[in-house]
Structures are given as C-alpha cells and as structure tokens.
Specification:
Layout: E1 2-7, E2 13-19, H1 37-44, H2 47-64, E3 70-80, E4 85-94, H3 106-122
Antiparallel strand pairs: 1-2, 2-4, 3-4
Helix pairs in contact: 2-3
Length: 126
C-alpha cells in the first residue's frame, strides 16, 4: 500500500495520498491498474468508490476525534505509478489551532502517518 504524506509549506495542513494497490471486491473495485489517467476516472465516479470514500470519512472522523485535526478535503485521486495509474484517496487534514503561517510540527506529521496506517488497516486496503 502506497501512502504519501505531503505537508503544506507554510500552512497548518498536509495532504495524505493512499493509492489502491489491490482489488477491493467489497466495493466492486476489481481493477486498480490502468494505462492512462482517463481510465481511472471511471473508477472514481463508480458507486463502489463513492462507498469507499464514505467509509473512509466515517473512519477518519472516529480516528480524528480528540486530535484537534479536521478533514479539509476527502476525495478520489489519480495516483501515478511505474507506467500505470491507480485510483486512490486524497485527504487534506488541517490543524485549526496551529499558527496559520507555520507548517505542521514533526509530532503532528508522525500522528498523520499513524492515522493513515490505521485508516488503511480499518478499510482493509493492504
């Protein structure tokens, strides 16, 4: 499972990208490798993928409870790979209590890694 965390420079937020690397039959997502980004679009608008995003939102709300972090964005993503493209989750988390012009501290970034790992585990993406 590829998880990529990209802190926003000079902002109290970070993006988390989780690419799907195995089929998810529970969500009717049987194919997760495509030759072009355009091919991924069909997956991102499918009911199964929308169900995955809804489940991810519910789990994230639970995981974020008491952390002070908020979901700023949760949507589908086209994740580039080695000559292939995959559907994935794009999550932007924001700390409303942090100074607005400062990047997230290292401890918060470590917490984001743990949250992403928990989300992947709970959704059985790996």
């Amino acid at each position: 499972m590829a998880i990529r965390i990209v802190p926003d420079e000079g902002q109290s937020s970070a993006a988390v990208e989780i690419s799907l690397e195995k089929p998810l039959p529970d969500y009717d997502l049987e194919e997760v490798e495509f030759p072009t980004p355009r091919d991924v679009d069909g997956v991102l608008v499918s009911q199964g993928f929308r169900d995955l995003v809804d489940d991810a939102r519910g789990i994230l709300i639970e995981l974020l409870d008491g952390t002070g972090l908020e979901i700023a964005q949760l949507t589908g993503a086209i994740c580039p790979g080695d000559e292939l493209y995959r559907p994935g989750l794009w999550i932007v988390l924001h700390d409303p209590h942090a100074p607005p012009s400062q990047a997230l501290p290292a401890t918060t970034r470590q917490r984001l890694t743990a949250l992403a790992d928990s989300l992947v585990h709970r959704l059985q993406l790996a």
